[in-house]
From TrEMBL:
Protein name: Glycine dehydrogenase (decarboxylating)
EC annotation from Swiss-Prot or TrEMBL: 1.4.4.2
GO molecular function, one term: pyridoxal phosphate binding
Reaction catalyzed: N(6)-[(R)-lipoyl]-L-lysyl-[glycine-cleavage complex H protein] + glycine + H(+) = N(6)-[(R)-S(8)-aminomethyldihydrolipoyl]-L-lysyl-[glycine-cleavage complex H protein] + CO2
One of the Pfam families matching this protein, by short name: GcvP2_C
Residues covered by the Glycine dehydrogenase C-terminal domain: 787-908
Residue ranges of domain Glycine cleavage system P-protein N-terminal in the record: 28-455, 465-747
Oligomeric form and interacting partners: The glycine cleavage system is composed of four proteins: P, T, L and H.
């Protein structure tokens, strides 16, 4: 008998046509726990809904009575979002970029685009702080360092910086601290990229550095003392001149020299190191990295051996593992800001790893011969272009150049630029009388002919002109030294070989595509494919950052929308997306506060209060902003000690500039008295900076701008889904209250009290902004709120499940944590000798990435599950930690020696398990498959390529470029 209509399955819960058309909401895909899983988690927590959890965990004083974010539209599905984004992209006009200014057309080899840029094995990886499961990206970064060191002629290169302008600023401060001169003056070549000059001014002023911008084309340095100099090679105008004499003069006068160099030009030109330079900086953008309207791109810095331990940022070094095998790691990690704090010389705590990997792969793909050929093509295009212009009577400013010519056309510059634009080519208008033209690997003969036509020149047959035109590089500067001689740059030239190399490297890593990465303070959440899709659309990725405004309307509208949404969600008046990393957002926020005080005549306000638990970059950023750091204590619950805060405020009185706090706290707790903290600072005339590192616990439920913050930086690579990329790219927009809006980076002219830019491109790193735009557009306000509270539920679930095995160090007044929890292993270590390192490395045997180690409290693990992990994966981590505790107990019982057990010997490689000599007191199977394989380890087994790495050996024997092949023997 057929069922009656009343009980037929198609009638019971039949959705409407509108609901069917909408499909499954994106939030249901982004948020990991299914409804029944979430119910089980909430049951463990003793609450019946996310709302009840919010009532319990969040202090009423900070909560919005209802979700606030009025500018954010109702959530769109994936297809509708992409259609809307295509509409914005269609409003951009992509022209042939011949503007130059450090940004050039390039071709991303398809094998690199698909296998790196579009591959979650690469873009979802975290910073390689666990080197045993990061050997792939470390090897790629070592290739990057080797490529840069070879091309610049300086032996030590870092693993990338944020952009060329900030790299030049880092070079300025490096020269100051490593030189002997006490002079505050820094000399800069007037022929430096204008955006670099702007960032140098921003960074120099609060540090008391006096910039002396001078024309050095005559070969002489200015009078007086100075601690360092920055030369450009080639210059912004395209001019190529030998800097050796200037470098010698500077050294004779006790100064050090940095050279901003075009890496592609160095395949043809004598490298800076051979000319005597102490430091070289620049960009690797033209090594296969799309323009992206200005970024992200990996900058480089290389130095001599004397400056190796002064390098800012990250440095990959060669060490050895427990079996004596070759292994890679981040070297000199004690330079990291969370250790050096107010003694830090830089606030850089990230890199542009994904882009550095792409640039390195470009070098590996083309090899030395291929790079030289690309450089020769680029230069010949410029030389023939110049010859054609000269035949038409156009005066050129320089005889010697690499890829950029400066043409003098009195009164005709606007007409020339307009005519070229009509032909689909963007040139650089320098003045009403001068036009700059730059060639690149994508320049064609047809482009040359279109440029000649724009200038009103008929150059004749190109072949004849080419045959009659000599190169335009100075003969004395021709490169004679070899580069990229290491086998890495010769063995992977076919696409098959490169594809397999990239697969081998990816298999040596552990990224979010294979496992949960439960890192406290780092929010490793889903980076959805739909969010990533637009990153490689030509209308976004092929825009030059200084293209005419009419050509970039779609991108600028997207940026404006994103800034508005972020301002609403955080409770601030305005947002600037220019800072291209969280550290730069911090600096921009503090510079805004300092400028605000100056505008009110309060020049004496220079004290920045920072809790002892704060992120280390906070203190470093305060120093860079010209402030004095005063540490405020924390109480037994990990909260800001109000009594100590009031005492420090009273002590420093009229000198108080700002308080920097992280909310929820760095300890993973919603501090109930945060309004009292903010109120005390405001009452004393100070400003409150709320670090947005933990914003994933606030979005949709509370807004820092509404509960006391004056300024915050946000991490789009954490809360708003831009992937970490192995340690970058990041975006760190700064959000401010109304009274600070004039002091956003670049918002007001410097001469009017403005701050100036903090990154090279006008909009920072807009190439990755479609990711965050798409995330917000698809989640909507209610989806964001759900995500926040699910993240809080996941953290509390972990704390509850593991609390009986590992003490949870801090919690709120009701026993709840925020979006992360700290597991205290200090007593375990004291009783058994088992350390946080041992636990972290044993998790590798379980196929799980370790939580954050020993931050903010030494001897602890900080765990953040995020909202996008489902219950089975969370439970897999929980069970692994319980199994590890069982092994700890066996050590404590004396069953295994403290120096020979599965924890101390972890991680275990396949090679060590296959060794005939197995002399450990535990079986091989337990080493390989913890808990007898009951945790799903068998079917998800990750074999680490190396055993535990000897960090001290690597720091004592600093090797920062690819070792010879015999090292692998």
């Amino acid at each position: 008998m057929s069922p009656t209509p009343a009980t037929h399955p198609t009638d019971r819960h039949r959705p409407t046509l509108a609901e069917l058309e909408r499909g499954v909401p994106f939030a249901d895909r982004h948020i990991g726990p299914r409804p029944d899983e979430l119910s089980r988690m909430l049951e463990v927590l003793g609450v019946d809904s996310l709302d009840s959890l919010a009532d319990r965990a969040l202090p009423a004083a900070i909560r919005d009575p209802e979700p606030v974010g009025g500018s954010l539209p109702a959530p769109a599905g994936e297809a509708d979002m992409l259609a809307e984004l295509r509409g914005l992209a269609a409003r951009n006009t992509v022209t042939v970029p011949m503007i130059g200014l450090g940004y050039h057309g390039t071709r991303t080899p398809s094998v690199i685009r698909r296998n790196v840029l579009e591959n979650p094995a690469w873009y979802t990886a975290y910073t390689p702080y666990q080197p045993e499961i990061s050997q792939g990206r470390l090897e790629a970064l070592l290739a990057f360092q080797t490529m840069v060191a070879d091309l610049t002629g300086l032996p030590v290169a870092g693993a990338s910086l944020l952009d060329e302008a900030t790299a030049a600023a880092e070079a300025m401060t490096l020269l100051r601290r490593s030189g002997r001169s006490k002079s505050p003056r820094f000399v800069v070549d007037a022929d430096t990229l204008p955006q670099t000059l702007d960032v140098l001014r921003t960074r120099a002023e609060p540090l008391g550095i006096e910039l002396v911008v001078t024309d050095m084309s005559g070969g002489t340095l200015p009078e007086g003392e100075f601690f360092g100099a920055l030369l450009s090679y080639p210059g912004a105008s395209g001019r190529v001149a030998d800097p050796a004499a200037l470098i010698t003069q500077a050294h004779e006068r006790g100064a050090l020299v940095a050279v901003a160099a075009d890496l592609l030009a160095l395949t043809l030109l004598t490298p800076p190191g051979e000319l005597g330079a102490d430091v070289a900086v620049g960009s690797t953008q033209r090594f296969g990295v799309p323009l992206g309207f200005g970024g992200p791109h990996a900058a480089y810095m290389s130095v001599g051996q004397k400056q190796a331990r002064q390098l800012p940022g990250r440095l990959v070094g060669v060490s050895r593992d427990a079996d004596g095998n070759y292994a890679l790691r981040l070297a000199l990690q004690t330079r990291e800001q969370h250790i050096r704090r107010e003694k830090a010389t830089s606030n850089i705590c990230t890199a542009q790893v994904l882009l550095a990997v792409m640039a390195a792969c470009y070098g590996v793909h083309h090899g030395p011969d291929g790079l030289r050929q690309i450089a020769q093509r680029t230069h010949r295009m410029a030389a023939v272009l110049a010859a054609g212009l000269r035949t038409g009577g156009v005066e050129l400013a320089h005889e010697h150049f690499f890829d950029t010519i400066l043409a003098r056309v009195p009164g005709r510059a606007d007409a020339v630029v307009a005519a070229a634009h009509d032909a689909g080519i963007a040139l650089r208008r320098i003045s009403g009388d001068e036009v700059g033209v730059s060639t690149s690997e994508i320049t064609t003969v047809a482009h040359l002919e279109a440029v000649w036509a724009a200038f009103g020149v008929s150059a004749g047959p190109v072949g004849e002109l080419d045959a009659a035109t000599p190169d335009a590089l100075p003969a004395a500067l021709g490169r004679t030294s070899e580069y990229l001689t290491h086998p890495t740059f010769h063995e992977y030239r076919s696409e098959t070989a490169l594809m397999r190399w990239l697969r081998r490297l990816a298999d040596a890593d552990l990224a979010l595509d294979r496992t949960m990465i439960p890192l406290g303070s780092c929010t490793m959440k889903l980076n959805a494919a739909a969010e990533m899709e637009a990153v490689t659309w030509p209308q976004f990725c092929d825009l030059h950052p200084f293209a005419p405004e009419a050509d970039t309307a779609g991108s600028r509208e997207m940026i404006t929308q994103l800034e508005t949404w972020l301002a609403d969600l955080t409770g601030y008046a305005a947002v600037s997306l220019q800072p291209n990393a969280g550290s730069q957002g911090e600096l921009a926020g503090l510079l805004a506060i300092a400028a605000y005080h100056r505008s009110r005549g309060a020049h004496e306000r220079d004290v920045c209060l920072i809790p002892a638990s704060a992120h280390g970059t906070n203190a470093a950023s305060a120093i860079m902003a010209g402030m004095r750091v005063v540490v405020v204590g924390t109480d037994a619950q990990g909260d800001v000690d109000l009594d100590d805060l009031r005492a420090k405020i009273a002590e420093h009185g009229e000198r108080l500039s700002a308080l920097m706090i992280t909310y929820p706290s760095t300890h993973g707790v919603y501090e109930a008295q945060v309004r009292d903290v903010c109120g005390a600072v405001h009452e004393a005339g100070g400003q409150v900076y709320v670090d947005g590192a933990n914003l994933n616990a606030l979005v949709g439920v509370a807004r820092p701008g509404a509960f006391g913050g004056d300024v915050s930086h946000l991490n789009l690579h954490k809360t708003f889904c831009i992937p970490h990329g192995g340690g970058g790219p990041g975006v760190g927009p700064v959000a401010v209250a109304e009274h600070l809006v004039p002091f956003l980076p670049g918002r007001s002219p410097r001469e009017e009290g403005g701050v100036g830019p903090v990154s090279a491109a006008p909009h920072g790193s807009p190439g990755v902004l479609p990711i965050s735009w798409a995330y917000l557009r698809m989640m909507g306000l209610e989806g964001l709120r759900r995500a926040t509270l699910t993240a809080v539920a996941a953290a509390n679930y972990v704390a509850k499940r593991l609390g009986e095995h590992y003490p949870v160090l801090y919690s709120g007044v009701d026993g709840s944590v925020a979006h992360e929890c700290i597991l205290d292993l200090r007593q375990i270590t004291k009783d058994t000798g088992v350390t946080v390192d041992d636990v972290a490395k044993r998790l590798i045997d379980h196929g799980i990435h370790a939580p954050t180690m020993s931050f903010p409290v030494a001897g602890t693990l900080m765990v953040e599950p995020t909202e996008s992990e489902d219950l089975p994966e969370i439970e897999r981590f929980v069970q692994a930690m319980i199994a590890i505790r069982g092994e700890v107990d066996r050590v404590a019982a004396g069953e295994w020696p403290a120096d020979d057990n599965p924890l101390r010997n972890a991680p275990h490689t396949a090679a060590c398990l296959a060794d005939d000599k197995w002399e450990h007191p535990y079986p091989r199977e337990l080493a390989a498959y913890p808990a007898g394989g009951t945790l799903g380890v068998h079917d998800r087994k990750v074999w680490p390529p190396v055993r535990r790495i000897d960090g001290a050996h690597g720091d004592r024997n600093l090797v920062c470029s690819c070792p010879p092949p015999e090292a692998f023997a």
